[in-house]
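Model: You mentioned two targets. I'll fold them one after the other.
Researcher: Yes, keep them separate.
Model: Target one:
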Amino acid sequence: MTETTDAQLCADARAWAAQDPDPETRAEAEALADAAEAGDDAARAELRDRFDGRLGFGTAGLRAELGAGPRRMNRVVVSQTSAGFAAYLRDRATRGETTSPPTAVVGYDGRVGSEVFARDAAEVLAGAGIRVTLLPEAGPTPLTAFAVRHLGASAGVMITASHNPPRDNGYKVYLGDADGGSQIAPPVDAEIAARIAVAADRPFSEIARGTGITIAGPELADTYVRETAAAVVAGIAPEAESDLTASLTVVYTAMHGVGAELGRRVFSAAGLPHVVPVPEQDRPDGEFPTLAFPNPEEDGALDFAYALASDVGADLIVAHDPDADRLGLAAPDPANGGAYRRLSGNELGLLLGWRAAERRLREAERDDLPVSGALANTIVSSPALGAVARAHGLGIVETLSGFKWVSRVPDLVFGYEEALGYLPFPGVVRDKDGIQASADAIAMVRELAAEGRTVWDRLDEASERFGHFASAQVVVRLDGIDRVERLAELIRQDPPTAFDGVEVKRFIDLRAPGAAEVPANVLRFDLAGGSRIMIRPSGTEPKLKIYLDARSGKGSVADRRRKAEKRLRRLEAAIREHLDGLQAESA
């Protein structure tokens, strides 16, 4: 492939500026071209980064930094993407796979540019003959996913970058009809990407814009609140109903996102305790002034919540990410001197999944029916949920990474991914939902408090009943994605037969034909004794991710924890030694 010259990139930047409806990004493109032509090497590099190619559209849609150029998020890219998506929906209608004309819901979060991008998406979809419903204000991603299903729409668009850094934004797509409001999955992403490429090749002025957009009324959010609250209340065990007045102090942070209002409405409708908000982070603010990375998983992200919780003596901290599709939970940990500790994604997934399994079992007994359904988690999540499923007569499904797979599991009872994504009520929304999950978690903690117990006691109970599962993640950073891919390939070509003297009972290469629903660059090692190692390159960064899981089912809870965590440390040392050896050999 011939590399694009600097002169051509400057010409491309000026052509971009001539069509860009946004004066800010138009000026950016022109200034970069001027500086590059004047011999500024930094400007040339920036120009190449922005204009040499375009953002790839995948199952997560688009996500990138704001700015001028086809490799950034801006009004031109959003409009071209919407034109391509509209063409896909029209083709889908022609094939009889959706209503004709198609319908779409467009929602947006509180990030910089989200409202403008949402209006662009709605107008372009409407200009292509799609009947569009635009949400009236910035709101959570789960509300858009709910709207697709509730309104019987053909599709949905959500303008969000979820928990990405502050200067990012994105374009996320859902499908209705048989997909039930789930995120898109292959090969749909490639089909949409092909139509976006066609739209981007045409003059920007040819992208039609329409009017007649319907603005959703308050009944949409009202229905979401009512159905979510009803699901939470219905899931409360009868023996716990007399303890609904148990005192519980909950600190809540929206992380400058859009979860606060809808979340509090759900908590109130479900009869849950009023939360104490972190005032500095309670309202939407796309600049995220108190957070470098607005993600509950990041170190320091909960510092404001921890400080407030200490001041008010909180029993629980609830944290949503900026679009409220993820949930972080923290509580005072007696094992750590009473300091607040955030539950890992796997710990909370175990607790909420166990709660969902008990709900399903009660429903089956009430209706005098056999218990049925499945719990689901991604392949890099802990195997603990499988033990819960088997103990309750439910199926267990391990999916590829991404909620687009989890939400599609037939007869799903509960699903989660270790990156703080949970779906406790699939009958309401078919995507991860931090508001649903937080309401269910608060109800669970209130029930435990009424019994004089904590989440840590409940986790100990799980260890006693199902065995103790310990999980860890190792990240190996290299100086290029190509080196990461080479390292993964070396492991694939000569997979170890043991780690730390523990035999590999089964090795699975998920890229091999038939090993997974869609081939994935993931290597799985199941070890004797129930331990497991999963290895996969990051799809976006130059790093290899290794997920380690160990289990112990013998002795006291303390013994089980100690043995599992010791096994985990030894597995980590073994995998690091193996990777160091491979890198030395290939140097």
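Model: Target two:
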Amino acid sequence: MNTLSLSASKHSKSFLNLLKPQTSKTQSSIFLLSHHLSTDPGPETEPNPKPNQSPKDDDLLITQAVELLQPNEKDWNFDQLHHLLFSNSAAPSPRSLFHITRRLGASSKALKFFEYVSENVASPPDSTVSLSSSFQAILELAKREPTSQNKLYDLYKMAKERNIPLNISAAALLVRSLGMVGMVDEALIVFNDLDPGLKNTHLRNAAIDVMLKSGCVDDALKVLDEMFDPKAEGRVDQVTGDIVLSYLLKREWPGRSFSEEDIVGLVLKFGEHGVFPDSVKLTKLITALCRNRKTNKAWDVLHDVMKLGGDVKAASCNALLTCLTRCNDFKRMNELMVKMKEMDIHPDVVTFGIVINSLCKSRRIDEALELFEKISEGREKSDGVSTEPDVVIYNTLIDGLCKVGRQEEGLRLMEKMRLQNGCAPNTVTYNCLIDGFNKVGDIERGCELFHQMKEEGISPSVITLNTMVDCLCKHGRLNSAIDFLNEMQRDGVKGNAVTYATLITSFCNVNNISMAMELFEQMLRDGGSTDAIVYYSLISGLSQAGRMDDAISVVSKLKEACFSLDLVSYNVLINGFCKKNKLDKVHEMVQEMEAAGVKPDSVTYNTLISYFCKAGELTTGHRILSKMIDEGLVPTAVTFGALIHAYCLNGNTDKAMKIFREMGSKSKVPPNTVIYNILIDTLCKKNEVELAISLIDSMKDKGVRPNTATFNALFKGLKENNLLEKAFEFMDQMIEHACNPDYITMEILTEWLSAVGETEKLRRFVQGYEVAASTA
């Protein structure tokens, strides 16, 4: 490089123009970033003094020079300055020039000093190092000033034109500053123009950070590959890993997408160079893999990091344990716990909570209690564990005990919980116990716990409300459920969608549609949280009660609330309109269903097939069946039952029997008890009793269990043909299958057996004794 010999008078004016404030309203973003970038961290933040100068001498020179330069630039005494800096053979060190320039405070003033130095400094290599140090200070000052975004880059171009080399700290400052104000192309130009020997780890990290944040991913990965090279000047370090992994663990990446395999591959590559993700990043990666159902990959990456020597914490293991719990993979849970012990990774309370929760969900309560006792008694302290069970662990165990019917043990555990410091029962504790006693039908005990909870000042939640309401409704105490809801609402706990859905469904089930509608209106008036499930419950109840106009009214309100009908609701409505014989409404529902993108299922088709078959439109029924098969849906026993029943009603037994035989051969759909009953009843009415009896044998061969209706139909046919001995045989079969006779059975047999003098047989039959055997 040639010695700089430009005169200050000739060049300072144009050079100083670079540092004049812009008239733009928008001040530079660089100024806003100066707080964060006041000193660019790196290995060469400031130059060292010369070997023959002590830091003390250097500091004295700096102080004297700054005092001379304090006045306005016009009043500088260049003679004194020259005598101080250049009178002896030892020119000022790069460190001296760096600090003198930086302490001038303003970039314009510093730049004038820089021009003076460039005119008087010795020839290379001293001039190169000294001017680079002084120029670094100018960049730092300019960066802090409210200047325009282009100012730093203009300074860089000026330095390049005048062959002033950047040192590493100045280069890193430029790359970061330009990148943070969006001048990515300019930042990359600065980085790429540098000599490869100057690109140390710190500078490469700065460049990678800028590239990734701006979406220049391929450029960043190219630099990263260079850093993985064992012969590279700047090797990867922990900062590199943090920058790259922080970027890759985002949900979305500007410029390019990454697969989990890509991320895992980079983690392992960093690991081979002794760089590992911290606990937060590793936990985040494992959680993401588990969320995407890549449990095996999560397992591998955690164990690979352990194998390569990474510092794995309990949190990362907990993330994997949680996933293994959801998969019920107890084998690998145990393996991971053993591995944690081998690696001296101390489990925390979350670890034990996950394991206990898993054991409880799999009904392995005794094992969960054993682990709980070990924690409580401190047996694990010798292994480095000194944690105590928290309220979450207690609640998990209490809930687990209640779910397996060990409510009393749950109560005792709650009392033990009270004795532990900092651990007291809360709303969840009581909810678990109340639900446990309610599930076994002990409603009074559940109510007692509810009142105890309130006496202790523990506020019940909407879950408490729903637990009690659900239990009362299931036991038929609907009025008590309403009273409980009103009481809770007076205490400030409002019912939610689950509360009203439970109540509405329960009142619909007992055909109290008026109360169901009243509850629905109350829910809308109260303005509480609504859910589609409430509308679905009411639509279903109204449809089953035949109140289709009211059901359609609720559908309108559902749509006003921005909900959509689901498949089940469409099926319920279609079935309701079929029962009302409103074919136009059925057609309208099917069209609306298709327009909404809700695909009909086998229930939809079976409902339509059954409707048209009962209406005698068998051709339409078969056409719908063909469409059902074309849509890829498999006909069920209900489908064939509807067709068989229709042909039986039309007196076409042959066609009905043909469909029956095709069920087992072509369609591979086994007939059920209902289909057998339809055929047996029809055959007996047509006096084809022998064929009906053969169907009884077929039921036995196919493992289909007959019921009381089956035998009633058969007894009618046997009576008409006076096949008394056969009747005795089937009376025994009825006892054998534990089919209790109903009033129809007794009416048929009493009239017939009394007429033929076999009342003793009838008495034995009623008492559950064999009949045919006594005849023998």
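Researcher: Noted. Anything on target two?
Model: Residues 1-44, 379-386 have pLDDT under 50 and may be disordered.
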